[in-house]
Amino acid sequence: MLNRTIAPQFKAIDHINLITPGYAQLDNGCNMYWFNSGEQELVRIEWVFSNIRFNPAKPLLNVAVNTMLTEGTKTMSAAQIADAVDYYGAFFQIDYGYDQSQVSLYCLNKHLASTLPVIKDILTNSIFPEKELQTFIRNQQQKLQVSLQKNDFVARRIFNHAMFGDTMYGLSPDALDYAQLDRNDMLAHYKQMYQPNNCTLIVAGKVDDNTLKTVTHLFDKDWFNSDIPADTTQPETHTTGDLFNYIEKPDALQSAIRLGIPTINRSHPDFPALQIVNTILGGYFGSRLMNNIREDKGYTYGIGSATSSMKHTGSIFIATEVGADVTNATMTEIEKEINILKTELISDEELSLVKNYLLGSLLGSLENVFSHADKFKNVYFSGLDFEYYDRYTEVIRNITPQQVLTLANQYFDFDKFCKVIVGKMN
Amino acid sequence: MVKFNRFTLGNGLRVIVHEDKTTPMAVLNVLYDVGARDENPEQTGFAHLFEHLMFGGSINIPNYDEPLQRVGGENNAFTSNDITNYYITLPSVNLETAFWLESDRMLSLAFSEKSLEVQRNVVMEEFKQRYLNQPYGDVMLKLRPLVYKNHPYRWATIGKELSHIEFAKIEDVKAFFKKHYNPQNAILVVGGDVDTEQVKELAEKWFGSIPAGEKYTRDLPQEPEQHDERRDTVTAKVPLNSLYIAFQMKNRLDESYYVTDLISDILSRGNSSRLHRNLLKEKQLFSEIHAYMTGSSDTGMFIVDGKPLPGVSIEQAEAAIWEELETIKNELIPVDELTKVRNKTESTMVFSEMSLLDKAMNLAYFELLGDAEWLNLETGRYIAITAQQIQQQAQTLFRKENSSTLVYLAE
Q1: Given A4, A7, A301, which is nearest B126 (Cβ)?
Q2: How far apart are CA A107 and CA B144, in angstroms?
Q3: What was the pLDDT predicted at A178?
């Protein structure tokens, strides 16, 4: 008779295997990495550019330039660009981040020779036509109006500003910032940022010699650096000192809550251990915040905490949306959980569960060749290499309850947390 | 091409195995053939609430999540109007833990009152977060009853109203489990770094002894064809007006499904699509515009929605959408445009094979539809579509008397 009360034997994960990328530098200074693996005849290519120095008077420049790369070049209209990419079943994506912004192409290998020249044109010849700029401004202003009705969106804006001030990380645009976008500023920004020696090219998928040749031949030639080097330094971040922010929404059914504190980033030796402490508090479904505030009290659909690593700073934060009538109770419970983390040693049972969970999800995060490239990007842009993951797994295996307690006390100073509530307090 | 092996246990549980040795992980996916359409009209939202309760402990295992996290696994689930789907991903060396957990909750739940009480609250907060406390969050709650007069698709998966969830009782939970959660109404897919023989043994060991239960025979009121133009206007605290036009489309197994899907691509997929290019970029009438379909098992919805720019009246906006729909009805789609949407479909299919979990879910869903092998026939079905078929289908779909228009006005 099968005894269903006894769990099957299990094994802890002891290592992960990461694909070592190939590397070459193109003549124009562009660094290229490639990850070759996979059954499917497809490839993802990313052109990643470091953001140039942020100007708080023109906070939208980076976003507008990146988003409008598809909107016209000296030789192609926005419509022609869209046709050229869509016709070959390719997916073209543009993303802007705090520290880097990028262009990505997802394409079947057989169509690469047809789609790559379009990307080349975008990276070398974009003109940001005035008419398209006006469309962009108008539609983004409309979208912003909708987003500003969402409590969690508003909470995030206020929180980021309180944490990081008038920097790339802290400043969110308003409608007026859109209106003030100027095409000439955009062209200058584009010229300085989107140049080969500020670009990292990452190719992942079925990358045979032929694919590599196609890419290098195109991006090695006729893509030149500008006279002005890309200035990728950033002004220092500073908190505004506004530790408590409450925006009352009298009709709210739920309140959005966000609280946290600036902290170390990935390049700091404590970062892997801090990730473990964060996981215990709110970083997975079985976390203390989820167990208490969702699974025991039913105050919310979800609550979580996260560490965020940026080039020049980092943060730990907690975010949730809770019933308006339990806003205060939730704040009390969050504080209680942080205090427990700082005053009580974690049990061996809970710590071993978190360790196994983290190692399993590290293994599971390597779903396909793209994930290997993503793992690489995480460390590469923090000035680290794949050894980081060896250290990360070492730290997970060896961390003790006492170390968890010490770290919690070092990094979770609740009185210095910046707290934002958008909704209702009761 | 997604290869698989297939067998059925004595109790009727269908099992599919997809071996993929490129990953060190395994996936265990269980699809239950029950969704919001199977609910009592007085107890809507129940299938989804029930999904939450499946994590509240089973007969022999008090806590579902903890033992899984302990072996490095993760899980989640979703409920739609048609199905409820549960999945686990974990290191393949620990596959048996997934069998242990998943089989015990198919055998029986713990039916804890505490879990019911808490999850009722959690689901009500989910209702608020996603549908009530968001601008335009309640659109589907208003559009569905306009399109469906008979079929249970007239309510959304989350339910008609908060009170239906608030008053759910433990007896209802037990009855729902008995009716829908048994081997005959489920499909199990195991994928990743696994062997078919090993899966056979584990399936027999953990699921083989679960009683077959009663087969649920679905007999739902079907939606009659629409013969009247429908319209509703609501006013809410939102910043912009918004417009939704829904058309009834045939069920998932009807051959027109694929043609209809391509029509949504022609209208709305990517920046080269017609609605984006003509109405957003050229005529500058909308700040956003989309076309999509629900892909429902029974009569579905094809929806066009858009937010007109300030100064553009609802009448103007509606007329502009209809002009685009008339074009696709009256003119054969050019060869290049047809090639484009075919190419897009082909590459989407290839890219979807990059995800083990997607493959497992798709196999389960196609097996439910009739045959897991149909997953591998999908690309071919799209490629075979002609310009004439697209025109004919557009003519069938885009008729005023087959439309339901919801005008959502800013207060």
Answers
A1: A301
A2: 37
A3: 97
User: Which of B125, B138, B139 to mutate against chain A (most A CBs within 10 Å)?
Assistant: B125
B51 as an active site residue: the answer is yes
Q: Which two tokens stand for residue A330?
A: 């939730």
pLDDT of residue A15: 81
Q: Which helix (H) or strand (E) holds B248?
A: strand B242-249
- Strand arrangement, sheet containing B14-19: B5-8, B14-19, B186-192, B25-32, B84-91, B74-79
What is residue B130's DSSP assignment?
A: I
B248 contacts B402 by C-beta, under 8 angstroms: yes
B21 touches chain A (CB under 8 A): no
Cβ-based contacts of B335 with chain A (< 8 Å):
none
The 10 Å Cβ neighbour count of residue B295 is 17
Enumerate the β-bridge partners of residue B16: B6, B189
Residue A413 has pLDDT above 90, yes or no: yes
| DSSP-assigned beta bridge partners for residue A32 | A24, A201
- Measured in angstroms, the CA of A227 and the nearest CA of chain B are apart by 34
Q: What is the pLDDT of residue A426?
A: 81
Query: Angle at Cα A223 formed by Cα A44 and Cα A100, nearest 5°?
Result: 50
Whose CA is closest to B378, among B341, B338, B345? B345
Average confidence (pLDDT) over A152-166? 97
Q: What is the pLDDT of residue B180?
A: 97
Q: How many CA atoms lie within 13 A of B96 on its CB side?
A: 14
At B149-160, the pLDDT tens digits run 999 999 999 999
CA atoms B251, B252, B253, B256: torsion sign: positive
For residue A357, what pLDDT is reported? 96
pLDDT digits (tens, 9 = 90+) for B169-212: 999 999 999 999 999 999 999 999 999 999 999 999 999 999 99
Q: Which H or E run contains B355?
A: none
Checking ipTM against 0.90, whether it exceeds it is: yes
Q: Is the pLDDT of residue A38 over 90?
A: no
Chain B residue with CA closest to A17: the answer is B24
Question: Residue A14: pLDDT band by 50, 70, 90 thresholds?
Answer: confident
Token pair listed for B196: 């078919």
- DSSP, collapsed to helix, strand or coil, labels residue B37 as helix
Phi first, then psi: what are they for B29, rounded to 5°? -120, 130
Can you tell me which residue has the tokens 């070049």? Answer: A73
SS3 of A416, please? helix
A238: tokens are 């500073």
Query: Is A339's pLDDT higher than 90?
Result: yes
Residues of chain A found within 8 Å of residue B336, distances taken between Cβ atoms = 87
The shortest C-alpha distance from B48 to chain A (Å) reads: 13
Is the CB of A139 less than 8 angstroms away from the CB of B67? no
Helices (H), ranges, B194-289: 196-207, 256-268, 274
- Classify the C-alpha dihedral B5-B8-B9-B10 as positive or negative: negative
pLDDT of residue B409: 97
The pLDDT, as a whole number, for residue B118 is 95
B266: region left, alpha or beta (phi > 0 left; psi from -120 to 50 alpha):
alpha
State mean pLDDT over B307-325. 97
Which among B19, B42, B51, B331 is annotated as catalytic?
Answer: B51
Separation in Å, CA of A276 to nearest CA in chain B: 14
